[in-house]
Amino acid sequence: EAAAAGLEEAKARGFFEQQLKEYQERRDVLLAAFDKLGLKYFLPEGSYFVLVDISRLKFPDDYPFPETVRGRGRDFKACWFMALEVGVSAIPVSEFYCEEHCNIGENYARFGFCKDVDTLKEAGHRLQSLSKYLS
What residues does the Aminotransferase class I/classII large domain cover (predicted)? Predict the structure, then answer.
């Protein structure tokens, strides 16, 4: 009964419409950063994550990855590199695949836009420093 009352209140107060508007704004802030870099992505249709094609990202061959990262997929290394060098975290897509198929996701990173607009603007600004690592 409490859940039903909560849904009725949410509807009466326009909660879902407001949430949709806010997440579209947040999504657009992050996507603008990828557009500026020329990185392709899949437009999300039902979540607050966007899959970005990171195949053009070239980190140095001699980058000092820790032992726990060296045996992982390319996307895992790219996400580690971005977190340390740019200060923006992403989720390696290969983590969602079984071991025998993890290579399917190695050219993608998953970025969340479930943050406040100022944080996303800062992330977009930081992401621009990736331009020197793009082929």
Answer: 2-123
